[in-house]
Specification:
The chain is mainly β. It is 9% helix and 33% strand.
């Protein structure tokens, strides 16, 4: 740690801006102090917008955003973007008042707009979805929740059984707290606490349902609105009991004979910014540590905590995992890790797997790795008014399983119109929570026609919790109990459960007894007026399925790591009049033999009604059969919702059999619009028949990417390899992505992997030098294509700068001037650097005589550095915004710049006025390091 005294030359940790002109800045953010930001901050030539600034230099260079209001701790990952380019994931302050991102060698280009996003939602108020009043994407069709009369649509039929009906067993509850555990990569121990609810009088061993909450505030002060994301909790604050928020669903399942536990994860929430995967592996470890304890208690019940002994014995061969938000990603990883062991050095669990995961329920989940467990059945609840994970990226738990493994596991998407993110957990719900809580959907800046409280489509907290409990119980009954009568509630058949109340719930699915028919991709050809094969994720509007300029979003098209992602396609249709057929041809004939129907997942614009298409198929010999007509209505949606979502529609295959088509060799699918002008997107088409087969995990290869950090060295070029581990069994394929360091270009290719071989080699060249510079990060990330699963999806090689920063000296150029001239000091580096180097100058009270005030300097300079001209004038050492300072920059490759304070002649006879300031920077611990002191005098012009 460097300490500097007055008058000494020092190497301070300076702010890194790419300009030689002085620019304003405000107090450097440290983990404990808020930051204010100046609209005049500069990086390169462009001015940074209000709330943004760059701090540090070289390896410590960081981009900092300070919001107008604290950002509540949530589950969606906060992202910094420049235009369409992802810069990275910033680290938040525990109170959400500032976010900082290590930039390294990342450059910002002229004209790029800085944005802050989370789950597709813009947090910095710069995007169209932050307008004062959201509008429907098109005139909204009549809403159709089942229990709301006066709608234009009939409710779907009632299902044969209702899983939301309370069962016959008496329930009891309690909590246990065990010794905290250490997890890899987290310096603080993580709690082992759970709320247990189970049947008191159920016979035999009972199936288990484990709940894991998401990323929310960790600590609160009782009786106040104070919450934060620290861990452990500061003195006077208590851990926020997020794990107690699923009592309604736990009691329902317990009454039906399930032993339920909801585990606490505040210790992960308070530290997951340290994890490259956002904490998924840590949450998996925590889940499996609890299951391991329950396995021990099942064998030795006398040693179990009282809350465990009070409920019926647990059967660990029948386990359902329920995860909310980041908890959803955590239980998905736990299911995957239970089948395919993670690398031991990344895992907090040791020992055998003594349980079997029968299914997952994922509530508004994140999926940063886009790596679903393909052979574990799942039901993903997508809240239509989610204001946290607002892009509904959990859809990838369905779409991302296609073609990866055997395809027998059912993966269901459950779209719940009018549900938000938080209200599934009562401890995140205003009026129910012990701590301060909010409605996560943003309505404070205007009325949303779909999601603002009080609108016909918006659910109350109680309605949402009832519907959530019903569909959790539906998944338990299907995946764990094997009751196929519940399947129509989850698989797109279109049934409703009365216990879900007025909630309008729609579903679709892949897997089970579906056989792949038409999955858009490079091997598929599309012909017909207005039809094209489109890219789900691409910034080019001509290639993308849904242009970002159109408003609204699709969960199917959720962004991942690359701004243009190959391997994800759909078929886009646009027509001006009915009757023009569109043909979708597979690369080779597909079999629909044994299927009862053809199931299509079809997206139509939100708010639209009555989109109709005729469906036909053609076999390899050219015989054609018209199967029927389908109708799809759009979901309620606005500019703020992700409502471009696939409706499952089915047509019978009997006409193809009657027409003597060879259903083993179907070559083409034909869609003919029969409604007026419109749009639609075909996600895929499958052969379908009823039933839920047993999901047997396949022997798959597992891929984990690690990170290697090396010193750059002084000379020469060294080649390193990104750490890649391939374990498991079998041969498979992954898509490898390698971004260019500091840019937005991403190279990708499909690679075949097999355990024990080194087919996935990613070489990285590191060039040594002796000049101070940036750390250079070489990233890589992977996604499963076929026959593989992915654990840690991203990593790389970081070349660490190992050269000292040049020393800084400051000399006066003009420190005694008449008014109307500029005070000037020269800042000189001892040597040029490969990184931009900048420092701050803070004004101090003078020790004697009059101090220069805001009235004595150029008005534009005051506005630029202090935001506005104060009235009455203030001494420069007492700015309106505390901590304001003047910054200076020395660009990479140069050795000097100047700091100036332009004064004005006021024509008033007055004594000399002076200014006093100190140069400062920050050390590696983000402690302020003072540098040389500056003084200057301004004399009366007369």
């Amino acid at each position: 740690m460097i300490r500097v005294t007055r008058g000494m030359t020092t190497a301070v940790a300076l702010l890194a801006l790419a300009t030689a002109s002085p620019a304003p800045a405000f107090a450097q953010p440290s983990p404990g102090d808020p930051t204010a930001a100046s609209p005049g901050s500069r990086y390169g030539d462009p001015r940074l917008p209000e709330g943004w600034r760059v701090t540090g230099s070289g390896a410590g260079r960081q981009l900092v955003w300070t919001p107008d209001e604290p950002v509540p701790m949530g589950d969606a990952r906060v992202e910094f973007r420049a235009g369409g380019r992802l810069l990275g994931y910033p680290v938040p302050r525990p109170d959400g008042r500032s976010f900082r991102l290590a930039l390294g060698d990342i450059r910002l280009d002229e004209g790029e707009r800085l944005r802050v996003t989370a789950g597709g939602r813009e947090l910095d108020g710069t995007g169209p979805n932050r307008s004062g009043k959201a509008r429907p994407l098109i005139p909204t069709a009549p809403a159709a929740p089942p229990a709301r009369p006066g709608t234009g649509q009939a409710p779907p039929p009632v299902n044969a059984v209702d899983p939301g009906v309370r069962g016959p067993y008496r329930t009891v509850g309690g909590e246990y707290a065990l010794r905290s555990v250490r997890l890899p990569g987290f310096p603080e121990p993580v709690e082992m606490r759970a709320a247990v609810v189970g049947p008191a009088d159920a016979p035999g061993k009972r199936p288990v349902a484990l709940f894991l909450h998401g990323r929310h505030a960790t600590c609160y002060t009782p009786g106040t609105e104070d919450v934060n994301g620290a861990w452990p909790c500061p003195s006077g604050m208590r851990p926020l009991p997020s794990h107690q928020g699923y009592q309604r669903a736990q009691r329902l399942l317990a009454s039906q004979g399930y032993v339920t536990l909801s585990i606490a994860a505040n210790g992960i929430n308070g530290q997951d910014f340290r994890a490259e995967d956002g904490g998924a592996q840590a949450r998996s470890s925590l889940v499996r540590l609890h299951l391991a304890r329950w396995a021990e208690w099942a064998a030795h019940r006398k040693g179990a905590p009282a809350a465990v002994r009070a409920v019926a014995p647990a059967d660990l061969s029948r386990v359902l995992l329920v995860g909310h938000s980041r908890g959803g990603e955590g239980v998905n990883r736990a299911a995957l890790d239970s089948l395919y062991a993670p690398p031991a050095d990344q895992d907090g669990h040791r020992g055998p797997v003594r349980w079997k995961i029968r299914g997952n329920v994922l509530i508004g989940p994140t999926i940063f790795g886009q790596n679903p467990a393909p052979d574990v059945p799942s039901a993903t609840l997508l809240p239509g008014c989610d204001g946290d994970v607002s892009d509904l990226q959990g859809q990838i738990y369905v779409d991302g399983t296609r073609g990866v493994s055997r395809g027998t596991a059912l993966h269901s998407a459950v779209y719940m119109v009018g549900a938000n993110h938080n209200f599934f957990n009562s401890e995140w719900t205003p009026g129910q929570a012990k701590a301060s809580a909010i409605d996560d959907f943003p309505s404070e800046d205007g009325t949303d026609p779909v999601c603002s409280p009080g609108t016909p489509t918006r659910l109350t907290a109680t309605q949402q919790q009832a519907a959530g409990a019903t569909y959790i119980a539906a998944a338990a009954r299907l995946f764990v109990a094997g009751d196929d009568r519940v399947r129509p509630l989850l698989d797109g058949t279109g049934r409703r459960a009365p216990s879900a109340g007025p909630a309008r719930v729609l579903t679709h699915a892949v897997g089970a007894h579906r056989t792949p028919a038409f999955l858009p991709g490079p091997s598929v050809t599309v012909s017909g007026t207005g039809a094209r094969l489109c890219a789900q994720v691409d910034p080019d509007a001509a290639r993308s399925c849904l242009s970002p300029d159109e408003g609204g979003a699709s969960p199917h098209f959720a962004f991942w790591e690359a701004s243009a992602e190959p391997g994800r396609h759909a078929v886009a249709l646009r027509w001006e009049r009915p009757g023009s057929p569109v043909a979708v041809r597979a690369g080779r004939p597909v079999s629909l033999a044994g299927s009862e129907a053809l199931a299509l997942r079809l997206i139509v614009p939100p708010g639209s009604a009555g989109t109709e298409l005729d469906v036909a198929v053609t076999d390899a010999s050219g015989r054609r059969a018209h199967l029927g007509r389908v109708r799809a209505d759009g979901l309620p949606g606005s500019e703020r919702t992700a409502s471009y979502w696939g409706r499952e529609v089915r047509v019978p295959l009997a006409p193809a059999v009657r027409a003597a088509l060879d259903t083993r060799r179907i070559r083409a699918l034909e869609l003919t619009p029969r409604s007026g002008s419109g749009r639609a997107w075909l996600m895929d088409a499958w052969g379908w028949r009823p039933g839920t087969p047993e999901a047997r995990p396949a022997p798959l290869a597992r891929v984990d990417i690690g990170r290697l950090t090396v010193d750059e060295g002084d000379e020469g070029t060294r080649t390193y390899r990104v750490p890649v581990r391939v374990t498991g069994k079998g041969t498979g394929q992954v898509r490898l992505f390698v971004p260019r360091p500091g840019g937005d270009e991403v190279a990708s290719r499909v690679v075949t992997v097999r355990p024990g071989r080194h087919a996935l080699e990613i070489p990285v060249e590191v060039r040594g030098n002796t000049r101070y510079g940036y750390d250079v990060t070489h990233d890589a990330f992977v996604k499963a294509v076929r026959g593989t699963v992915v654990g840690a999806h991203r990593g790389g090689v970081t070349a660490r700068n190992d050269d000292p920063m040049p020393t800084v000296s400051v000399t006066p150029v003009a420190d005694d001037v008449p008014e109307g001239k500029a005070l000037t000091w020269r800042v000189t580096l001892s040597a040029a650097a490969d990184a931009d180097v900048m420092g701050g100058v803070e004004f101090l009270p003078v020790t004697g005589g009059a101090e220069l005030s805001t009235a004595d300097v150029d008005r534009r300079w005051v506005e630029e550095h202090f935001w506005f001209v104060p009235d009455p004038p203030r001494p420069l050492s007492r700015p309106v915004e505390p901590g304001a300072y003047l910054s200076f920059a020395v660009p990479a490759g140069e050795t000097r710049t100047e700091v100036t304070v332009p004064t004005v002649a006021d024509g008033v006879a007055e004594p000399a006025e002076s200014v006093r300031a100190v140069v400062f920077g920050y050390d590696a611990e983000w402690e302020r390091v003072p540098g040389p002191e500056l003084t200057g005098t301004v004399r009366d012009a007369g």
